[in-house]
Amino acid sequence: MKMVHWLLTLAVAWWLRQGGAQKALCSRWCGNMEVPFPFGLEIDCARSKDFLLNCASADRLLLGNITVYKIEVYNSTMEIGLPGEYSDARHLVREHDGCFELVDCREQDLRRGQVEPVKLCCAGENTKCEDFGEERAYICLCKDDGYEGNPYDRTQGCTDFNECENPNRCPYNGKCKNTPGNYTCHCPFGMWGDGKVTCQISVWIVLVPAIILAFFTAVGALVLYMWRRRSKEKNFKRNGGELLKHHRVQIFTEAELIKATNNYDNSNKLGEGGFGSVYRGRVVGDTIIAVKKPKDLHKSLMKMDFQHELQIVMQINHKNVVKLHGICLETRIPLLVYEYISNGTLFQHIHQNASNILRSWKNRLRIAAETALALDYMHSCAEPPIIHGDIKSVNILLDHNYSAKVSDFGTSVLISPEHSNMVATKIQGTLGYIDPEYLTTGIITIKSDVYSFGVVLVELLTRKKPTSFITRPGESINIIHYFVSSVKDKTFSDIINFEATSEDEMERIGMVAEIAVKCLDQTRAKRPTMREVAEQLTRINQELDSLTVEENNEETNCEVDEESLASHSTSVICETSQHGTSSSLF
User: Fold this and answer.
1) Contacts of residue 507, Cβ cutoff 8 Å, sequence gap at least 6
2) CATH for 346-549+557-566?
3) 387: closest CA among 434, 347, 344?
4) Please, where in the chain does CATH 1.10.510.10 lie?
5) Of 6, 152, 181, 320, which sits 20 to 30 A from 554 (CA to CA)?
């Protein structure tokens, strides 16, 4: 121990810690060993006498009685041999903080490998004793890169330091965790691998969310399905399904109509009105239908309108009225399904198309007569009688044979047996077709339909819209008023849209014009009934047929339905409704 203390005293003067003048000519070699300053072989060449070495022979350098084998400047160490029993062993003297410590990693009679050297000489568990490169020469080091300190200091020794304080320790943005003598990098959530080397996306981060999403999607779909099913069942009962399914009307499901109309695609839209839109569809058996889909606004009022229209159309059975094909009660506002009428509206043929069908006066007269028969059926044969309420060319459809079909009963009114009119809560109809007395009094009667029919006759004769005007010098006159005055003045031939083929035909056209004027009387009491109008138009049609040669109308492939009109030559025969009345439905 005295020797160790003596050597520690020498560390005070170690040349890396000291400076000063050196003798210009000093011997620095003892054999092949260099003697660097502050050591020297002469007193004038050493820092002090404490650093004076003795070159005893060419291969032996002494520090006192201690043999010095090597002095290394770069790591501040000396390799020495101790006197006495340890004289055959080589040891290291290492400078640390200006002091030298004797490094003795072995005990007497112990051999390397038989006993762990680090436990014998180095300070603490975090040090290790390694071969210094020479036989029987050893050095103490801190165990791993994660430790720092003096491996010979038995007070502090080698201690762990926190590598995670370096922000670049984990290059893949993982979480750094310090461990004794080392550190780990945990990959970010959803990735796996050694965070020090690489991080890869985990298959579970894709699979687990997919499974969870699929699970909740399935649950959501099931809940939605159950909710929609219960909603449909509730709507079916609320819309009178239990009662209506016993009537002779087909019940459609919502899914059937969605499929039939391609989810109500705009390409299938036939028209749109205040109630909603009408879509073409095709159901099983290639039957083409027209679905009347209401708007979602004012659902309670829409439901009342639906029930009202259904109540009316279910008791009508006439070949010149659009037939109800079925109903759908699963929606909040039920859907009406009508037969599909393929050739559009009379309005389109009069005003929008260069329609060949209307080039013939006979076809115009036939369409007028068929419409009159349908209205007479509603006024005289339906029980209770029905006021259509919105007769106009848009609501008169033409089927594949160009026969007239009256449609749209959304504004129709049922008349009780004890009353011949109804006081409307609001005026409904279309400008130009509305009965002027209905506008002023709010009272609607079957004569209101007569006035509207008279406007349609004017459209057929003139191909003018009822809201159009005829311009005269200094004034513009509505077409209806102009037509009435022209008929009374016998000048109506100036405004009709076709030429008569004979004098007799022109006479019959004049008769139809006079019927139109009677229908357009401002006083409803003076207007004829639809039965009188239907009988007169049918008779005129028969007389015209008997006076003219039947024309071959190959362009339109449409013939006058003489048989049907003949059956109404003197009177209108009421057909029994196949559906009966519906007064008990709602």
Assistant:
1) none
2) 1.10.510.10
3) 434
4) 346-549+557-566
5) 320
Q: What is the DSSP string of 310-355?
A: HHHHTT---TTBPPEEEEE-SSSS-EEEEE--TT-BHHIIIIIS--
Q: How many residues does the chain have?
A: 586
Q: Is 390 a residue of the active site?
A: yes
- CA neighbor of 299 nearest in space, from 247, 351, 235, 389: 235
Give me 473's structure tokens. Answer: 């010098």
Please report, for residues 312, 314, 383, the alpha-carbon distance to residue 244 in angstroms, rounded to integers and kept in the order given. Answer: 14, 10, 19
Distances (CA, A) of 82 to 3, 111, 187, 351, 470: 9, 18, 54, 129, 138
Q: Which residues are annotated as a binding site for ATP?
A: 293
Pick the CATH number of 163-200 from 2.10.25, 3.30.70, 1.10.10, 3.40.630: 2.10.25
CA proximity to 321, closest of 388, 408, 405, 409: 405
274 pLDDT band, cuts 50/70/90, is low
- Specify the pLDDT at position 366: 94
Q: At residue 40, does pLDDT exceed 90?
A: no
Name the pLDDT band for 82 (thresholds 50, 70, 90). Answer: low
Mean pLDDT of the chain: 77
Q: Are 403 and 431 in contact (CB under 8 A)?
A: no
Count Cα neighbours of 396 within 13 Å in the Cβ-side half-sphere: 29
Q: What is the mean pLDDT of residues 483-507?
A: 84
The superfamily CATH assigns to domain 239-339 is Phosphorylase Kinase; domain 1 (3.30.200.20)
Residue located via tokens 């849209």: 497
d(CA 171, CA 188) in angstroms, rounded, equals: 11
Q: Which residues contact 172 (CB under 8 A, 6 or more apart)?
A: 185, 187, 188, 191, 195, 198, 199
| Backbone φ and ψ of 217, nearest 5° | -65, -45
Query: Which amino acid appears at position 557 of this protein?
Result: N
Let me know if 460 is exposed, middle or buried by CB neighbors in 10 A (0-12, 13-18, 19+).
Answer: buried
Write down the catalytic residue from 160, 305, 376, 390: 390
Beta-bridge partner residues of 477: 470
CB 275 within 8 A of CB 410: yes
User: DSSP state, 260?
Assistant: H
Residue 211 class from Cβ within 10 Å (0-12 exposed, 13-18 middle, 19+ buried)? exposed
* Residues linked to residue 72 through DSSP beta bridges, in sequence order: 77
Q: Could you give the CA distance from residue 426 to residue 213 in angstroms, rounded to a whole number?
A: 53
Binding residues: 293
